[in-house]
Design goal:
Layout: H1 4-11, E1 13-18, H2 22-38, H3 48-53, H4 61-67, H5 70-80, E2 84-94, E3 102-105, E4 119-125, E5 136-138, E6 175-176, E7 183-187, E8 193-195, E9 204-212, E10 224-230, E11 238-240, H6 250-267
Parallel strand pairs: 10-11
Antiparallel strand pairs: 1-7, 2-9, 2-10, 3-8, 4-7, 4-9, 5-6, 5-8
Length: 284
């Protein structure tokens, strides 16, 4: 695994890195599915789906704990250095035999961070994420250019918040990144990537943790919220959070609302219709 940094720098992604054992993944999946069974309605006017897709680490202890996993942090430190913050934790779930896809896009397009290199997404498979199950595809080297033009499609089967898509991708250049349960990929925010429908008979569950460094806000306007997980606590431009007090704690739900309001203007900027994932209350 020692050459993963060089591969990441060259291609903009690396795949197949081990993080969790089979028994650990099974336990984590059970915890997630217990949350779904017991708290489907969510809390504070937000459905569980919204928490899974937007800043769940603010109100769900499990997601915050996963972002602090030493095996993940050790690998991410090799990319970003010793001072690490968690900007977002998300769950991407495609049900068995689901038509849902993720179109070709760059993550960082709407994040309000410019074209920084001081971020990386760690994407951990909590089920079998094979080609048939709709694993991610990447365009090698696409991170070396700037942010490409995206079109908002708001397509019904697209899991992205606004169905954002890059046109004209040469699919022959794409490389699949299948993952076994417990394996992880890393990708740069400017790396073109997409994923297909889940044609398997099991759910495809992926955990996406967005790590950044304090330096992001040195070259991006405004301020934002993040959770320090390793190294020095940053100053200037970052409002640091400690993580949830408990599941859907009232104080954390209030913080969630403040963060959602603060980030919504940036994350939904330019959209010609409501971006449901960043709506205040009632999203499912």
């Amino acid at each position: 695994m020692s050459d993963y940094v060089e591969s990441y720098r060259e291609n903009g992604f690396v795949s197949g890195l081990p993080v969790f054992t089979g028994s650990e993944v099974a336990a984590l999946r059970q915890q997630i599915e217990t949350l779904e069974a017991q708290h489907a309605a969510g809390a504070g006017g937000h459905g569980l789906t919204q928490f899974f897709r937007v800043n769940g680490h603010v109100v769900i202890p499990l997601l915050a704990e996963l972002s602090r996993t030493p095996a993940i942090l050790d690998v991410v430190e090799g990319i970003l250095g010793p001072d690490l913050l968690v900007w977002s934790v998300e769950l991407f779930i495609k049900e068995a035999n689901s038509p849902h896809t993720v179109s070709w896009h760059q993550d960082i397009t709407y994040w309000g961070m410019g074209e920084t290199d001081d971020e990386v997404t760690a994407w951990v498979a909590l089920s079998d994420v094979s080609v048939k199950a709709g694993c991610m595809r990447f365009i090698p080297g696409s991170h070396k250019s700037g942010i490409a033009e995206h079109e908002d499609t708001f397509a019904e089967d697209n899991l992205l918040s606004r169905g954002q898509s890059i046109a004209g991708i040469d699919e022959s250049m794409a490389r699949h990144g299948p993952l076994e349960p417990g394996q992880m990929s890393l990708h740069h925010g400017r790396c073109f990537h997409a994923s297909g429908a889940n044609g398997s008979d099991d759910r495809r569950i992926g955990l996406a943790i967005r790590y950044v460094t304090p330096a992001v806000r040195d070259h991006a306007p405004g301020c934002d919220w993040a959770m320090p997980v390793r190294g020095e606590v940053p100053a200037g431009g970052w409002s640091c959070i400690a993580g949830p007090r408990g599941l859907f704690h009232p104080a954390d739900l209030a913080l969630y609302e403040r963060i959602l309001v603060g980030q919504a203007a940036t994350l939904a900027a330019g959209a010609d219709q409501t971006v449901d994932l960043y709506a205040m209350g009632g999203a499912t």
